[in-house]
Amino acid sequence: MLELKNIKKAFDGTTILNDITLDVQDGEIISILGPSGSGKTTLLNLILGITDIDSGKLLYDGQDLTRVPMEKRGFNIVFQDYALFPNLNAYDNITYGLKNNPGISSKEEVAELIELLGLEEHLEKRIEQLSGGQKQRVALARTMVMKPKILLLDEPLSALDGVIKESIKDRIKTIAREYNLTTIIVTHDPEEALTLSDRVLIINEGKISQYGRPEEIINEPNNSFIREFILNQLEIKRNNIFSLFRCEATA
Ligand SMILES: Nc1ncnc2c1ncn2[C@@H]1O[C@H](COP(=O)(O)OP(=O)(O)OP(=O)(O)O)[C@@H](O)[C@H]1O
């Protein structure tokens, strides 16, 4: 279990995250949702260990990781731009991290992951020959072969169109279930957060606005920010679609 206790972070004297306390159970999928500038990426970076925590504690399985450097935490991230090596093919990208740590995943485990992500026919392709969704799956596989204790994903679906988005969402869920992998996802899209996660952490102006299961957020929003920002966005989306149909029907 990952635990954050009273975490605070400021940049240049401005408080960005204030008193963040939460837990993430093993195998849970959590989305961090909030408006632009609310501190989502900062929170992800604090968990990953690339940004220092000012005060508070970060524990994993009871062990204090607050001052433990990133490479010793055993967490791993897929960045928004995938950060793949353009000079290597898909397979060499996936297995890159195993060169220096060959024992982490066996050939069979790599093959199983490739199959799970539907990448068998793309392994020889260079990165530039892959679609956005295929690149995303290669990036996921590359991170997964290293068997992270926690998988962090920064806006994993934002560059993808509707159908591919749904398929990647399903694959993320399958992987989390199959490997009991704790997965933490940053997103600004309420629909994505509510349909992908076991629990959604909504932050606003650096504070936790609500942390709960999707049905709790929808049925029992904690405050007016959630009602207005999150639920209203979904309502507007829905109304836009229905008003379009009404216009077409009366045209
Ligand atoms: N290294 C830094 N130095 C100074 N300020 C920073 C730094 N990183 C982030 N900030 C500031 O912290 C605030 C939160 O940024 P963060 O990237 O965490 O927000 P976000 O919720 O991920 O936003 P977005 O959805 O736009 O990516 C912003 O006001 C940003 O300018």
Question: Would you mind describing this structure in some detail?
Answer:
The chain is of the alpha/beta class and 251 residues long. It has a domain at 2-74 and 148-219: P-loop containing nucleotide triphosphate hydrolases (Rossmann fold). Helix content is 39%, strand content 24%. The chain is built from nine helices and ten strands. It has helices at 40-48, 70-73, 90-95, 107-116, 132-144, 162-178, 190-196, 214-219, 224-250, and strands at 2-11, 14-24, 29-33, 55-60, 63-64, 75-78, 150-154, 182-187, 199-204, 207-212. Strands 6-7-8-3-9-10 form a six-stranded mixed β-sheet, with helices on both faces. Helix 6 links the parallel strand 7 (150-154) and strand 8. The longest helix has 27 residues, at 224-250. The protein is globular. The termini are far apart. The mean pLDDT is 90. The chain binds adenosine-5'-triphosphate. Adenosine-5'-triphosphate is lined by residues 11-12, 16, 34, 36-42, 188. Its EC number is 7.6.2.9. This is ABC-type quaternary amine transporter. Keywords: ATP-binding, Nucleotide-binding, Transport. Residues 2-230 form the ABC transporter domain. One of its GO terms (molecular function) is ABC-type quaternary ammonium compound transporting activity.
